[in-house]
Amino acid sequence: METKNFEIVSSQSNIEWTGRKVTGAHNGTIAITKGSLTLSNGNLTGGKFTIDTTSINILDITDPATNAQFAGHLASDDFFSSEKFPEAFLEITNVDAKSATVYYITGNLTIKDITEPVSFEASLNASGDALTAGGKIVIDRTKYNMRFRSGNFFKDLGDTLIYNEFDLNVSITAKAVPAFA
């Protein structure tokens, strides 16, 4: 059985997020700072990575002042509490191969020191010492104490309601770690 470890190349990996509200949506990026994936006999068997919550970037708001205000709000205790919790983590706990390149992944996502299980489908392509992977994770923000304008906790929000679920579209590039002789 050949086991190969791949280190995530943070400069070539990222997460695109989308959050929705009654009147529309917002989107942006957030950085993956480090992590690894493990393959055994060419199949994904595990992994983990670290997300930098201080790197939240908003792409759809072009006015610099409004963008900075929104970024500050996402970093606040209403959402990610980035000053107190600058990192979030995803650790893969189970992998089911659906095909040679598609996997159903179960893991633990930790945001604001709160860990909740997540499941999602991901694609993975490994060739030699290079690997690319991607998947969409749908998160219920209220499970991580992000209750701002949630209809579950506040009444009569009307068109200011923010939906509880947001999407994380993860894109990873990784390079094989040389095996020790």
Automatic annotation (TrEMBL):
<protein>
    <recommendedName>
        <fullName>Lipid/polyisoprenoid-binding YceI-like domain-containing protein</fullName>
    </recommendedName>
</protein>
<feature type="domain" description="Lipid/polyisoprenoid-binding YceI-like">
    <location>
        <begin position="5"/>
        <end position="175"/>
    </location>
</feature>
<dbReference type="Pfam" id="PF04264">
    <property type="entry name" value="YceI"/>
</dbReference>
<dbReference type="InterPro" id="IPR036761">
    <property type="entry name" value="TTHA0802/YceI-like_sf"/>
</dbReference>
<dbReference type="InterPro" id="IPR007372">
    <property type="entry name" value="Lipid/polyisoprenoid-bd_YceI"/>
</dbReference>
